[in-house]
Amino acid sequence: MLSFEQARQLILENITPTGVEQVSLLDAVGRVVAHDMIAPWDMPLWDNSAMDGYAVRSTDCGQVPCRLKVTGYLPAGARGDGVVVEPGCAVRIMTGAPTPAGCDAVVPVEETDDGQQEVALLEPVKKGQHIRLRGEDVASGAVFVRAGAIVRPPEVNILANFGKAVVAVHRRPVVAILSTGDELIELGRTPGPGEIVNSNALSLAAAVMETGCIPRILGIARDDRESHLEKLREGLKADVLITSAGVSAGDRDLVRGVLDELGAGQIFWKVGVKPGGPTAFAIYGSTPVFSLPGNPVSTMITFEEFVRPALLKMLGQQRVLRPLFRAVLREDVQKKPGKVQIVRVRLEREGGRWFAGSAGNQQTAILKTMVDAQALAVLPADSGNFAAGDEVDVHFYGNYCDLMEAAR
Ligand code: AMP
Ligand code: MG
Fold first, then answer.
1. Is the overall model pTM greater than 0.85, yes or no?
2. Which of 60, 95, 128, 173 is 20 to 30 A off residue 136, Cα-Cα?
């Protein structure tokens, strides 16, 4: 059977980033920069003052207090050309103003008597102090935002500094979401006997939205070939298709058969992971098709482990897997060798280590444990039972913000 790691690798090998579009700077927020951004000029563009104070020659200020004649004034926005600091003189200067010729230090106003005609310097002066040098932030020609970076407020700021009103970002894939099953009803109706609300479509849409892709809910395919044909055909027009349920070995499990009929080439079916074993993956043209098991916990976990990295790669991100870190198990965990087992856990920080306790009943039908989980422990395929005190790999999942508090 295909291992968890092999399945992920096969998926990522078959995924390429989407094309590039130009969007306005604020529309780029949360999006992924498509190309390395090269500085068109030095930043800052000229040597300038880091303080409100006086531009001076440091050699004039050998011992303090010393007195200098004030011969000019440079507010922010002033052009410094033509202004010179002569020996024995100082020029009043405001933060950001270009430093005048001759000066090699700025003395903050707080270290002077704030004189207008003449100024007394009260503290020793070091050559170069409080001067920001041309290009010291970013030199012309240097990369200032890398391809693959997500646009956040700092990226917006530096892009704006370099005059980038539009930014090349990867296109956001449209992700079609199809639920299958005769038992399903849409949200808004109270389920009768045997009926289940199509909650997977909504939680998949939410998970797609969290990645930055665009969900398109297609509704429900009934457990017959015609309904599957119609809905899957529509879904294959999207950039990505995700189906839930109907992918096990039951006689009503039609998804794989109909996808095959439509020409979507299956890359794999069945993975050595619990939950999520029946997951299938196919490619139709350039559209990846993820067929996830229908059990809502399995659907969410397989999305997290298999679909999310693929969507992030399509969006142009370069680090698509959540970082793993080690945590000490609070309880024994029963496990048979052969498959990766994914356990929903809560985390606590104690004595510089993370501790992972079960988030609740681990049966795949238990949805509340998913709500309570802060992280998923990924137990390797080849190992058997774990004992309390063993260290395992975990990664964050879900509502883990409160953990940042715990970690302090
Ligand atoms: P299946 O994979 O078709 O055997 O479905 C497995 C379980 O998941 C069954 O209990 C289904 O009722 C449930 N299920 C399937 N699809 C959905 C859905 N869209 N939303 C919520 N539960 C579902
Ligand atoms: Mg079904």
1. yes
2. 60
